[in-house]
Design a protein that fits this description.
Chain lengths: 258, 246
């Protein structure tokens, strides 16, 4: 009960802050301090959002499709790499620096190249998303495997367990928390990655829509689509959290006990 | 014939001998303690017997068969309960069966069948975090038992429990051991605990650790309630303290 009250009060502050920002934004435009063409007020953005809604949804489907395929492949690749790097120390030493290196490549620099290599269809988007999403998964899982209690591993060895069984019963389940933190980050990367690569070349999706409204100087629609992307990212992260709770029931039982 | 026997076990790390020439025996249904100071090589000896470490010299025999360096033959319980937080109690306890290749459903039902005997009924579907320290230790003991019903190595299993819980679990353990005919080799640095539970006590002293004395506790089992307050108990304690401080 007390905790519920706390969570309401803590939300109260953030909700008030957002309301305040929106109010100031609206006031700045309404009072004519800033040209409403350059910075459309929130109400105008909301109207644009409603009127463009069917069109936005059409583009959202395309973006989400790319994001999901890319994320799924990224998770699969990230998982496979983590398993191999855990199993073979040589691979870990050889590829860990390479994995880090892939993260230092600026997305906006590589996206146009991917368009040149793979064309304007789905392929370059998915490739970009895979590159950006596998990293948090691999690193999260590897850290998780390495945090396994050596005594627990000894106990299983004493029971006669092989490497595969130790991985299955100790390392993998112990890494689930870090895995889901990785997925949560990757999910938001996936949406942003899809939008960026659509921006740089494509036939549909929220990124393509963005370039069109930008070229038409319809800044209210621009803000509407930014808002939509934020909402999608938040919903995805929330969905990952729910999935995590479903997959890790022991965590919630622990919290209840405390 | 003893269930478990070691002959001349020696093991060193980085050129430093930790245990030297350890020979001991464990009879069927017996509880034998290894008593010695912390860091005296008790855990090294257990790791050798459990097959986790290969000795530099010596052999480990289970029912006369050489099992030196072979894990999975005798069950091992460490100081921490090491229940996996993400598995329910029944799935934790069934783990040794799963590792042996027993199908999941069968392993679960085999494990569940022992819950009442170990005083764990009703905890099957709970997670370790929902159990008290004493109950967790019982679950860990049941897992140890399902691992091998023959010989159990217990490495200071009750040292993390408070005095009162410890007393209760001692009594309970002796009862269960008798029912299931388990032979136990027990490591402890608690003299009272050793006298209270053991049929025999080996004193492991010195550096490198050697067995310097074997003490038979003549008191019949089950032990009377006030055994730990009796003259005999104090006499054993005095004898042990003298041997250790020599």
């Amino acid at each position: 009960m007390k905790r519920k009250l706390q969570s309401i009060t803590s939300k109260l502050w953030s909700v008030s802050a957002i309301a305040l920002i929106l109010a100031v934004w609206q006031a700045v435009s309404s009072l004519g301090l800033v040209d409403s063409f350059m910075l459309p007020p929130p109400l105008q953005v909301a109207r644009a959002f409603v009127s463009e809604f069917p069109l936005l949804m059409g583009h959202t489907v395309i973006t989400l499709e790319e994001a999901f395929i890319g994320l799924a492949l990224g998770i699969a690749l990230g998982f496979a790499m983590s398993v191999l790097m855990d199993r073979f120390e040589i691979l870990y030493r050889a590829f860990y620096p390479v994995v880090i290196l892939t993260q230092t490549i600026p997305t906006v620099a590589i996206a146009p190249l991917l368009v040149l290599w793979f064309g304007y269809e789905m392929m370059p988007k998915v490739v970009l998303i895979v590159i950006t999403t596998f990293f948090p998964i691999t690193v999260g899982l590897l850290n998780g495997y390495r945090s396994a209690d050596p005594d627990a591993i000894d106990l299983l060895r004493a029971m006669g367990a092989g490497k595969g069984q130790i991985f299955r019963y100790i390392k993998l389940p112990g890494a689930m928390g870090q895995f889901f933190s990785g997925v949560r980050i990757s999910a938001s990367y996936a949406v942003v990655g899809a939008v960026i690569s659509e921006w740089l070349g494509g036939f549909g999706g929220l990124g393509v829509y963005m370039t069109r409204v930008k070229n038409a100087f319809s800044f209210d629609k621009m803000f509407a689509v930014i808002l939509l992307i934020s909402v999608i990212s938040l919903l995805l992260m929330r969905a990952v959290e729910l999935l995590q709770r479903l997959c890790m029931p022991w965590e919630s039982s622990r919290r209840r006990e405390e | 014939m003893p269930v478990l026997r070691t002959e001349g076990i020696t093991r060193s790390f980085d050129g430093k001998t930790i245990i030297k020439d350890i020979s001991l025996e464990l009879g069927r249904g017996e509880l034998v303690s290894l008593l010695g100071v912390s860091g005296g090589g008790k855990t090294t000896l257990f790791n050798v017997i459990a097959g986790l470490l290969k000795p530099d010299a010596g052999t480990v025999l289970l029912n006369g068969e050489d099992i030196t360096g072979r894990p999975g033959m005798v069950s091992y319980m460490l100081q921490k309960d090491l229940l996996l937080p993400y598995r329910t109690i029944v799935d934790n306890v069934a783990l040794p069966l799963l590792i042996r290749g027993v199908p999941k459903r069968e392993a679960r039902s085999q494990a569940a069948a022992c819950f009442a005997q170990f005083g764990l009924e009703g905890t099957e579907k709970k997670y370790p975090a929902q159990l008290s320290g004493g109950m967790k230790q019982r679950a860990a003991l049941l897992r140890t038992y399902l691992f091998s019903g023959e010989v159990a190595l217990l490495d200071e299993p009750f040292s993390a429990l408070d005095m009162l819980t410890k007393g209760a679990i001692h009594e309970w353990y002796l009862g269960v051991m008798e029912q299931i005919q388990l032979s136990t080799l027990f490591v402890t640095h608690d003299i009272d605990e050793a006298i209270l539970l053991s049929d025999r006590i080996y004193l492991l002293t010195g550096r490198p650790g050697r067995i310097t004395r074997e003490i038979v506790i003549g008191e019949p089992k089950p032990r009377r309630k006030d055994f730990n307050l009796s003259e005999q108990f104090l006499a054993y304690k005095k004898q042990i303290i003298q041997c250790i401080s020599q």
